[in-house]
Design a protein that fits this description.
The complex is a heterodimer of chains A (about 130) and B (about 290).
Chain A (H helix, E strand, L loop, with lengths): L10 H4 L6 H27 L6 H13 L1 H28 L7 H24 L4
Chain B lengths: L9 H37 L5 E8 L11 E8 L6 H11 L19 E4 L2 E4 L12 E4 L6 E3 L2 E2 L2 H9 L10 H4 L8 H8 L9 H5 L1 H5 L6 H11 L6 H11 L13 H5 L6 H16 L4
Parallel strand pairs in B: 1-5
Antiparallel strand pairs in B: 1-2, 3-4, 3-5, 6-7
Helix pairs in contact in B: 3-8, 8-9, 8-11
The chains are: A mainly alpha (about 130), B alpha+beta (about 290).
């Protein structure tokens, strides 16, 4: 038998322009999931400063909140979390076999809703401490 | 003697023969007109007026020195109304390069031989209209399968997955089966499995599935759909269904599906694959739920 040629996985993410709604939903759900897991570690690290006393904890939070970068990251975190939640609800319906014909529309709806919520949150987050 | 035609009908026979000669004349006239038309077309072709479609085709041949490294060849195929990608490939093979290799058979989306990667999507060559596609039309072999030559991929793994779900009717639910008689199915049940019976084993879904690409043990959409077709058939006995669910509930069975909907998007027979996989997932959960 003659040899064959393995094209491997090269074409997979190289052709992201051709991804359909379901594929994008999957990619974003994975991505936001990993970001949330990553955030969990920093979250625990910040919370654990409370072990050394309440004033140190308050000080840490204040200092972090005073940094503009942190406030921007918080907006990002909200975007990631909201999308993950909304798409998670969408996946719940998919698992229940409901509205599978509208799976692309529900993905776009969750994107739009995420955008709306994030924009609405910007004044609060970027405004810093009240 | 009695079988001979009566004398009175003879003139009729004569009339018929004159009829044939006029029909013959008509045919000859049409033939002449056709020749003239063809000549006119050939003249316009030589004048370079004919519209062509650029066809970029993936080429690879381990047995030919210059083709061991995959490359793309461009063929300019004269466009015809209603031309499919398969038609264009056949033209390119017959007129330009007889070594161009691809599978095809029925040309009407029944045999499932010519699933190709056309302009970045798994489609049947015989179903993809050139008029619907952006130019140049890029034709590649199905992704995630080893390429044997040009557009021909190794389908053995796909067939193995299909066979692993025992894709045949096993019966055992009714007395008719025990008596060796015809086993009837209710209308409702037939409707339920109708779409799943449409599968033509072309492998487009398997090739589009990102998960199947990374996990060779995953049954894949086509095999799961095949299992659905029989597991949901009311004429199969409980023990047969249990056996089928046992195969599907494995780690690399239905649970590998992550609802990308890629298979459903590309299926040339419009089978709602994801829907079927999700239904089998629910069946699997119901099978394993215990409230004590």
């Amino acid at each position: 038998m003659s040899q064959s040629y393995d094209r491997g996985l090269v074409e997979d993410f190289g052709r992201w322009r051709e991804f359909s709604a379901g594929m994008w939903a999957w990619v974003l759900h994975k991505f936001t999931g990993w970001v949330l897991i990553g955030y969990l570690f920093t979250h625990v690290a910040v919370l654990s400063t409370a072990v050394y006393g309440s004033s140190i904890y308050t000080e840490t939070i204040r200092e972090l909140e005073s940094l503009l970068v942190v406030r921007f990251l918080e907006v990002g975190l909200l975007a990631v979390a909201v999308f993950h939640i909304l798409n998670g609800v969408r996946l719940l319906f998919v698992d229940l076999g409901m509205g599978l014909d509208a799976q692309d529309k529900s993905f776009y709806a969750s994107l739009v809703l995420t955008g709306g919520i994030v924009v609405a949150s910007i004044p609060t987050f970027l405004g810093g401490q009240v | 003697m009695s079988t001979q035609l009566p004398e009175s009908e003879r003139p009729d026979a004569d009339g018929e023969s004159t009829g044939t000669s006029t029909a013959q004349q008509g045919r000859l006239e049409r033939k002449r007109a056709g020749t003239a038309e063809r000549q006119a077309r050939e003249e316009s072709e030589t004048a370079g007026e004919v519209e062509t479609v650029p066809l970029e085709v993936y080429r690879y041949d381990p047995d030919v020195e210059g083709k061991r490294r995959p490359r793309f060849d461009t063929f300019h195929v004269p466009l015809e109304q209603g031309m499919t990608v398969l038609d264009a490939l056949i033209y390119a093979r017959d007129e330009f390069d007889p070594s161009l290799t691809f599978r095809h058979s029925c040309r009407q989306a029944i045999c499932g031989s010519d699933a190709l990667f056309i302009n970045g999507e798994q489609r049947l060559g015989c179903q993809a209209q050139i008029a619907d596609l952006d130019h140049p039309v890029k034709v590649e072999p199905l992704p995630h399968q080893a390429v044997e030559k040009d557009l021909v991929v190794d389908m053995e793994h796909f067939y193995e997955q299909m066979r692993s779900v025992e894709p045949y009717f096993q019966g055992g639910a009714s007395e008719a089966d025990a008596a060796g008689e015809e086993q009837l199915q209710s209308r409702e049940n037939r409707e339920k499995i109708k779409m799943s019976t449409r599968c033509i084993w072309c492998g487009a879904c398997q090739s589009s599935c990102n998960i199947a690409a990374g996990d060779n043990k995953y049954l894949g959409p086509a095999a799961i759909n095949k299992a659905y077709r029989f597991a949901m058939d009311e004429r199969e006995g409980e023990d047969v269904k249990d056996h089928r669910m046992n195969v599907l509930e494995q780690e690399h069975g239905v649970w590998r599906c992550q609802t990308q909907f890629s298979c459903t998007d590309v299926c040339p027979k419009d089978i709602p694959l994801t829907e079927h996989i999700q239904e089998l997932k629910r069946e699997a959960v119901k099978d394993n739920l215990r409230f004590w």
